[in-house]
Amino acid sequence: MSAEDTYKTITGISESIYTEKRSKFIAIALPVRTHEEIKAHLETYQKKYYDARHVCYAYMLGHERTDFRANDNGEPSGTAGKPILGQINSNELTDILIIVVRYFGGIKLGTSGLIVAYKAAAAAAIEAATIIEKTVDEEVTVLFEYPFMNDVMRIVKEEEPEILSQSYDMDCSMTLRIRKSMMPKLRARLEKVETARLPETE
User: Fold this and answer.
1) Is residue 100 within 8 Å of residue 14, measured between CB atoms?
2) DSSP labels for the chain?
């Protein structure tokens, strides 16, 4: 199984609380797909914990895991966002946002103490989450003439792609989704059907 073909994410929101020298760290892990969702979640939690000293976070988006950010929100540079992101990376997760809210307890933790605490808080939120593996899927649309419907349906039955949409007019069309690694075979088989055309959808 190729690594490019699957990715790991979380199924729902999870939360955990970690305390260190009277400082309280509330960590929330959330599944996200877009920057808009991340922005909305951050606004929600910044309002909810308006009285907290710091609301730090890190996120990772996309199955290629190249779209990420870490934010220290006023903590010394590299002591909060980075350790949170480190936990996302070591668990190989994506499409995830982890927010860690800190309530200061009056005792300074020092930079190394902060790194350890943010890392532990993020790790605990991940541990409380349900991690699932998803496949990287691709879509293909095939156009064909009605008499060749059976040929197309036979391929669909054997290759088992998900049928996203289908229409049967003069020219029939079907949009299918299948795991990335199985797409070349599906395309090759569809292309062999008489009258079939596979317009590039990019």
Assistant:
1) no
2) --GGGEEEEESS-EEEEEEETTEEEEEEEEE--SHHHHHHHHHHHHHHTTTSSEEEEEEEESTT--EEEEE-TTSSTTSSHHHHHHHHHHTTB-SEEEEEEEE--SS--HHHHHHHHHHHHHHHHHHHSPEEEEE-EEEEEEEEEGGGHHHHHHHHHHH--EEEEEEESSEEEEEEEEEGGGHHHHHHHHHTSTT-B-----
Q: What is the pLDDT of residue 140?
A: 95
Task: Give per-residue pLDDT as tens, 45-86.
Answer: 999 999 998 999 999 999 889 999 999 999 999 999 999 999
Residue type, 179: R
Torsion of CA 47, 48, 53, 58, to 10 degrees: -80
Q: How far is CA 42 from the centre of its chain?
A: 16
- Average pLDDT (1-19) is 86
